[in-house]
Design goal:
- The structure holds two protein chains of two kinds.
- By secondary structure, chain A is an all-alpha fold.
- Helices cover 67% and strands 0% of the residues of chain A.
- Chain A contains 15 helices and no strands.
- Chain A starts with a helix and ends in a 9-residue tail after the last helix.
- By secondary structure, chain B is α/β, with parallel strands linked by helices.
- In chain B, the strands form two sheets. Chain B has a six-stranded mixed sheet with strand order 6-7-8-3-9-10, sandwiched between helices.
- The chains are: A mainly alpha, B alpha/beta.
- At the A-B interface, helix 7, helix 8, helix 9, helix 10 and helix 14 of A face helix 2, helix 3, helix 4, helix 5 and helix 6 of B.
Chain lengths: 381, 290
C-alpha cells in the first residue's frame, strides 16, 4: 500500500472513530435519562406515528390521491415487504429477486379463503396466508439455497414469475380477472374497515409493522441474527465455524416469506380485488430498491426505504409520466453518493459497554501486542 | 483396512490421517499421506509452496472429502460429515488468507464460534426463552475471555475489518477457539508478521496448548516451527517425506533438499523453485477454499 493510500485510510478510520465517538456520546446521554422519561418519549413517538399521518400533514400530503388511503394500499405493504426482504437480503445476504411471489401467495390465500371458495373472515384467513407463504418459502428454499449469488437470484426470479403466471392461468384463482369481493378485516365498534374509512387500516397496519419489528429485532439480536450476518459475510468461513448455514438460510427464507405473506394479506384486505398483474417482477425490483435505498441490514433504514418507494411516486404525481424517470434518477444519484443506504447498518459497538471490555491492559500479552501492531500491514500475505 | 504403518502406533491419537489421497482431476495434491496428531501436542506441518499443506487442512476440516484413505478424529471417520458437524466434533481452524466476518465486531466474530455448540434457534430467540438468555450471556462471557487470552480485548467492540492486521490474525485464533475445539488448526498464523510479533505468536501458541488444546500448525517460518512444535511432518509434492522431532527433521537430508534450500521463497513461489509451473499454479489455487 502506498504511503498516501495508508494515510487516506488512516483519515477514514479516524473519521469512523470520531463518528462512533459521537454516536456513543448520544447513546450515553440517552441512557443516562431517567427511565420514565425514555419510556414516555418512545410512547409519545409511537402515538405520533399513529395519529399524525391521519391529519394529512400539509407538506407530506399527496395532492392527487387520498394520503390516508395510500398509507393502507401502498405504504404498509411496502414497509412490511421491505422488512421481510431485509431479513433475506440485508441480513443473510441472499439475493432474492422473486420476493413478490410471497406477496402474491399471501394475497391469493386471503382471496381464496374469504370469497366463495371458503368464505372465511379475513382475520381467520390471515394465519393461513402467513403460514402458507412460509411453506412456499421453505419449498422454494430447500432445493435452491445450495445455489449462491447470481444463480440464486435467477432461480428466485423464476419463482416470482411462476407464481404470477400460475395465478393468471388457474381458473380457480380467477385467471387474469383476478379475485374480487375479498373480505375486509371485520369492523367492530368504532373500528371500521371500509372503502371510505381508511384510518383504521393505518392504525392496524402500523400495529402489524411494529409487531413485526419487535419480533424480528429479537431474532436479529440472537444467535440466529449472528449466523445470518456470518453467512452474509463469508459463508464458507461461517460453516467452518460451526454455523449450520443451510438451516439458517432456510429460516431466513421462511421468515422473509411469512412477512411477505402478511404484507400480501394486508394488501388483499385493503384492495379487496387482486389481479395477477399486481404481482409483476417490477414489484420485486421495487421491494429490493426499498431495502437498498433504506440501508440493507438496518430495520429502521428499510422502513424508511419502504415508505419512500411507496410514497414518493405518489407525492410527485404532478410530474406525470416523468415521475418514474425522476425516481430512477434519484435512485442512481443515491447509489453514487450514498451506496450504503439512507440509514446504513450501524456498528453495533454502542451496545457493548465499553467499561466492561477495556480493563484487560493488565494482560502482558495484550500490551505487547498493542505496542507491536500500531502500524498496519494489510498489503502483505 | 490398511495395516498401520510403523510410525503411528502411539496410543490414542486425536487425529489420524490414514493413507489419505486427494486428487483434483489429473492433479494429485495429496498422495498416501499418513500421520497422526496426539492429544496435547503441537504438531508442525511444513513443506514448500504447493506441497499440499492447506489441502491437508481442507481434508481434515471437511472442506474436501479425500479421494482415498480415511481421516479419523477421536476414533470417528470424518467421511461424509458436514463441515459444521466436524467443527462441533472438535476441529477448528484459521485461514491462511484472513477470513473473518468483516462487518461484525471482534466480540461477535468470536460469539459466532461459541454459538457452534448452542441450540438457540428462531423460536427461542423470538420468545426470549431462558435458553436464549443463558446461551447469550455465557457466549458473551466466553468470547470476552478468549479475546483476553489472545490479547485483543481492548478492541472487542470494533468491527473486524477496522482491526490492525496482527489483531485480525489473533482474532481468527480466538474465533476458532470459540468453537471449543480439541484440535486447533492454524494455517500460517504468522504470515506477514515481523520477528517481534512472531515471538508473541509463539508465546500465544504455547499458552493455547497450556489451556489444553492440541495444535496442528502450518507454518513457513522455520524459526517459529522449530521453536514451538513438538513434532513435525514434512510434505513435498503431496507426499510425506519426513516426520520427527524438530531436530530430526532439521537434519534430514530429504527435508533439506526439498525445503530448507528454498526457505526464502515464501512470498514468491516461483523464485528458486524448480518444479514445473503448471503444478505451482495448481498448488496455489488449492490453497483457497472452493
Amino acid at each position: 500500500m502506498s504511503p498516501l493510500a495508508s494515510e487516506v485510510r488512516e483519515v477514514i478510520v479516524g473519521l469512523n472513530d470520531s463518528r462512533r465517538e459521537r454516536r456513543m456520546a448520544w447513546a450515553d446521554r440517552w441512557n443516562r435519562q431517567p427511565k420514565a422519561f425514555r419510556i414516555s418519549l418512545v410512547v409519545l413517538l409511537i402515538a405520533a406515528l399513529y395519529v399524525v399521518p391521519l391529519t394529512k400533514p400539509p407538506l407530506i400530503n399527496t395532492p392527487h390521491v387520498d394520503f390516508v388511503s395510500l398509507l393502507g394500499t401502498s405504504v404498509v405493504p411496502f414497509v412490511l415487504m421491505a422488512l421481510g426482504l431485509n431479513v433475506v437480503v440485508g441480513l443473510a445476504g441472499l439475493l432474492d429477486l422473486g420476493y413478490v411471489g410471497f406477496y402474491a401467495v399471501g394475497a391469493y390465500v386471503i382471496g381464496v379463503l374469504t370469497t366463495q371458495h371458503a368464505n372465511l373472515p379475513w382475520l381467520v384467513a390471515l394465519p393461513f396466508a402467513v403460514l402458507i407463504a412460509m411453506a412456499f418459502g421453505v419449498v422454494l428454499g430447500a432445493p435452491t439455497l445450495r445455489l449462491r449469488g447470481d444463480y440464486l437470484a435467477i432461480v428466485t426470479l423464476g419463482f416470482g414469475e411462476i407464481i404470477r403466471i400460475s395465478a393468471q392461468n388457474f381458473e380457480w384463482l380467477g385467471a387474469s380477472e383476478g379475485i374480487s369481493g375479498i373480505k375486509r378485516p371485520a369492523s367492530f365498534g368504532p373500528v371500521k374497515f371500509s372503502a371510505l374509512e381508511n384510518r383504521w387500516y393505518w392504525v392496524f397496519g402500523l400495529t402489524l409493522i411494529l409487531l413485526v419489528v419487535f419480533l424480528l429485532r429479537r431474532v436479529e439480536h440472537s444467535r440466529v441474527g449472528r449466523a445470518w450476518t456470518a453467512i452474509r459475510e463469508d459463508e464458507d468461513a461461517a460453516e467452518l465455524m460451526g454455523v449450520p448455514t443451510f438451516k439458517f438460510k432456510l429460516w431466513a427464507f421462511a421468515i422473509g416469506a411469512s412477512v411477505g405473506g402478511l404484507a400480501g394479506a394486508f394488501y388483499a384486505g385493503k384492495n379487496i380485488t387482486i389481479y395477477p398483474a399486481d404481482f409483476q417482477i417490477a414489484n420485486s425490483i421495487l421491494f429490493l430498491a426499498a431495502v437498498v435505498l433504506g440501508g440493507p441490514g438496518n430495520m429502521w433504514g428499510v422502513i424508511v426505504g419502504g415508505f419512500a418507494i411507496a410514497y414518493l411516486p405518489e407525492r410527485f404525481r404532478f410530474l406525470q409520466d416523468k415521475r418514474y424517470l425522476v425516481f430512477g434518477i434519484a435512485l442512481v444519484i443515491m447509489m453514487i453518493f450514498r451506496p450504503q443506504g439512507l440509514l446504513p447498518r450501524r456498528q453495533r459497538a454502542a451496545e457493548l459497554t465499553r467499561a466492561a471490555l477495556l480493563p484487560d491492559a493488565s494482560d502482558p500479552l495484550a500490551e505487547e501486542a498493542a505496542d507491536a501492531t500500531v502500524a498496519e500491514r494489510r498489503d502483505d500475505a | 483396512m490398511q495395516p498401520w504403518p510403523s510410525g503411528v502406533t502411539m496410543p490414542e491419537p486425536l487425529l489420524e490421517l490414514d493413507r489419505v489421497g486427494m486428487r483434483f482431476g489429473g492433479v494429485t495434491a495429496l498422495d498416501d499421506v499418513t500421520f497422526s496428531v496426539q492429544s496435547g501436542e503441537i504438531l508442525g506441518l511444513i513443506g514448500p509452496n504447493g506441497a499440499g499443506k492447506t489441502t491437508c487442512f481442507n481434508v481434515v476440516t471437511g472442506v474436501y472429502t479425500p479421494t482415498e484413505g480415511r481421516v479419523r478424529f477421536r476414533g470417528q471417520n470424518l467421511a461424509g460429515r458436514k463441515r459444521y458437524e466436524i467443527t462441533r466434533l472438535g476441529i477448528a481452524r484459521t485461514f491462511q488468507n484472513i477470513r473473518l466476518f468483516p462487518e461484525m465486531t471482534a466480540l461477535e466474530n468470536v460469539m459466532v464460534g461459541v454459538d457452534a455448540h448452542h441450540r438457540t434457534s428462531v423460536l427461542s430467540a423470538m420468545l426470549r426463552l431462558p435458553l436464549h438468555a443463558r446461551e447469550e450471556s455465557e457466549g458473551r462471557e466466553r468470547a470476552e475471555e478468549l479475546l483476553g487470552l489472545v490479547g485483543i480485548a481492548d478492541r472487542a467492540g470494533d468491527l473486524a475489518r477496522n482491526l490492525p492486521y496482527g489483531y485480525q490474525r489473533r482474532l481468527e485464533i480466538a474465533r476458532a477457539l470459540g468453537t471449543s475445539p480439541r484440535l486447533l488448526c492454524l494455517d500460517e498464523p504468522a504470515a506477514g508478521f515481523n520477528p517481534v510479533e512472531k515471538q508473541q505468536l509463539m508465546a500465544l501458541i504455547r499458552r493455547v496448548r497450556q489451556e489444553g488444546y492440541t495444535v496442528l500448525l502450518i507454518e513457513h517460518d522455520m524459526s517459529l516451527v522449530m521453536g514451538v512444535t513438538d513434532r513435525i511432518v514434512v510434505l513435498d509434492f503431496g507426499k510425506k517425506i519426513a516426520e520427527g522431532s524438530p531436530a530430526q527433521v532439521r537434519d534430514d537430508p530429504r527435508v533439506i533438499q526439498a525445503y530448507l534450500g528454498v526457505i526464502d521463497d515464501e512470498d514468491e513461489p516461483s523464485v528458486g523453485d524448480e518444479r514445473p509451473a503448471g503444478r505451482m499454479v495448481g498448488g496455489q489455487s488449492r490453497d483457497e477454499l472452493p
